[in-house]
Amino acid sequence: MAPPCSTRTIGLRLMREAGYDPQAMVTVMQKLEQASGASRPPEFASAHPSPAGRIARIKEQLAKPVQ
User: Fold this and answer.
1) CA distance linking residue 30 with residue 25, whole number of Å
2) 35: pLDDT strictly greater than 80
3) Cα radius of gyration (the chain)
4) Is the distance from CB of 8 to CB of 61 less than 8 angstroms?
5) pTM over 0.90
6) Residues in contact with 24: Cβ distance below 8 Å, sequence separation at least 6, in sequence order
7) CB distance 2 to 35 below 8 Å
8) Distance CA 6, CA 58 (A)
9) Of the residues 22, 38, 43, 50, which has the fewest C-beta atoms closer than 10 A?
10) Which pLDDT value is given to residue 24?
11) pLDDT: is 64 or 17 the higher one?
12) What is the 3-state secondary structure (H, E, C) of the chain?
């Protein structure tokens, strides 16, 4: 049985397959983080992970071998 895929994993794979640089997803999250400023609620109180958390998870995913 294959391990479950997150939407992040699928998104990175689709970016690669389409010829885009998946590292660009980090750039997008950095821009989102800058735009949100200090007005974000704590991650535990938010419906979505913080941009910093997303960036860390994306970088972890990018460091893994392409499957």
Assistant:
1) 9
2) yes
3) 13
4) yes
5) no
6) 15
7) no
8) 11
9) 38
10) 92
11) 17
12) CCCCCCHHHHHHHHHHHCCCCCCHHHHHHHHHHHHHHHHCCCHHHCCCCCHHHHHHHHHHHHHCCCC
CB contact at 8 A, 8 and 58: yes
Provide the residue ranges of all domains of the chain, joining segments of one domain with +: 7-36+44-63
- For 5, the token pair is 């895929």
Q: Is the pLDDT of residue 17 over 90?
A: yes
pLDDT band at residue 1, thresholds of 50, 70 and 90?
Answer: very low
Q: Give the separation between CA 50 and CA 4, rounded to whole angstroms.
A: 22
Q: Return the closest-CA partner of residue 36 out of 49, 21, 25.
A: 49
Residues 63 and 22: beta-carbon distance below 8 Å = no
